[in-house]
Amino acid sequence: MKARILPDETLRKLAAQHGTPLYVYSAAVIRERVRELGGFDRIRYAQKANAHPEVLRLLRSLGVVVDAVSAGEVRQALAAGYQPSEIVYTADLFDRRALEELRRHPLPVNLGSDFMIEQYAELREKSGGPRDILLRINPGFGHGHARKVNTGGETSKHGIWFEQLRDCVQRAVRCGLRVHGLHLHIGSGTDFDHLVRVCQAMEQLCMVAEEAGAHIEVLSGGGGLPIPYRMGEPRLDLVRYKAAWMETRQRIAQRLGRTITLEVEPGRYLVAESGLLLTEVRGVKQSGSVRYAIVDAGFHNLIRPAMYGAYHQISALGQTERTATRPTVVAGPRCESGDVFTVDTLGHLLPQALPDLTCGDLLCIHDTGAYGASMASTYNAQPLAAEVLVDG
Ligand code: LLP
Fold first, then answer.
1. Pocket of ligand 1 from Cβ distances under 6 Å
2. What is d(CA 210, CA 295) in angstroms, rounded to the nearest whole number?
3. pLDDT tens-digit profile of 83-121?
4. Fewer CB within 10 A of the end CB, N or C, for the chain?
5. Which of these CATH numbers, 3.30.980.10, 3.20.20.10, 3.40.109.10, 3.40.50.300, describes 38-265?
6. How far is it, in rounded angstroms, from Cα 333 to Cα 335?
7. Whole-structure pTM value
């Protein structure tokens, strides 16, 4: 059973105070994750994982800069105290709201589609602002914890296709822009054979860009650092992960004869394990051989199981390793058969070991600090659930 991020007593008090469903985050866990990523020149937080204002403020106080993928995310970061220079807008398009936000706040951009080059140049002609840009490249291969999050190869909409890099750098130069960095975020989930390929691709791409007229000073390896959602899953070998990137940076710096700033851009790694979703059991029922615990949280609070078949361990407050359990399917209140938290990647029921439950018992859905609240909806006219960050 996974350890809970806070004592059961504290969780019970929070549930009584704020009601359920409730997202609870621990600042201590976030601090620890930031510390672990020391060694990169910059940690750029992918705020899409969790943009609670207190989470953003905490990360900023720890020296972590931020990535924004929309006008709304730019505004969230500014509201949390980030300076425009600490935010990078990364997207595969400029919608009109994003262009307006960038006109008002001239912040750095990372372009994921070739057509954005001329659009950005036009914006800067009219309103001034940074002429240095990053290009997000699709190296022709990808990776991801599920097909829906694979971010490379020709079946992915993300990034500038690697064979167009030379042309894009030249187009940028013609528009009076300077490509000063490359970005490769090619998947949520990492294995080391794959990482070696990514690092090699980065080196080759830097050389191509430089020959075409870029002046590479910044490299971003993107995010996608995995966390162990399942008990017993090994943690990411951070020493090896960092070493692969540092060596790549070193080789590129030597070949180009200048200092290179290396960024990492995690979302999940910084916040997933800091959070749990607290939900109340409203009743238990038996349908044939299947035991259902019906809870007050649903896929409007946590879409990951329904969307990707993602696994989140569930435990009951008061449950210990010695508690007797039985296989239980945990399902939400939404008027949809797919509103079930315990499923496999094909959507089949995957019961979890839970004690005998009754109405009023509280369950923790673990590792929901990333892509929980940030992907929530108000489907079925349900309000968004409250979020609490506990510090100390
Ligand atoms: N950078 C870029 C450009 C990204 O698109 C993403 C995630 C990240 C960084 C952060 O990835 P992370 O370190 O959190 O894996 N909603 C899905 C994940 C989709 C992520 C999309 N982009 C989930 O619940 O697993």
1. 46, 49, 67, 90, 149, 185, 188, 222-225, 265-269, 304, 370-371
2. 56
3. 999 999 999 999 999 999 999 999 999 999 999 999 999
4. C
5. 3.20.20.10
6. 7
7. 0.96
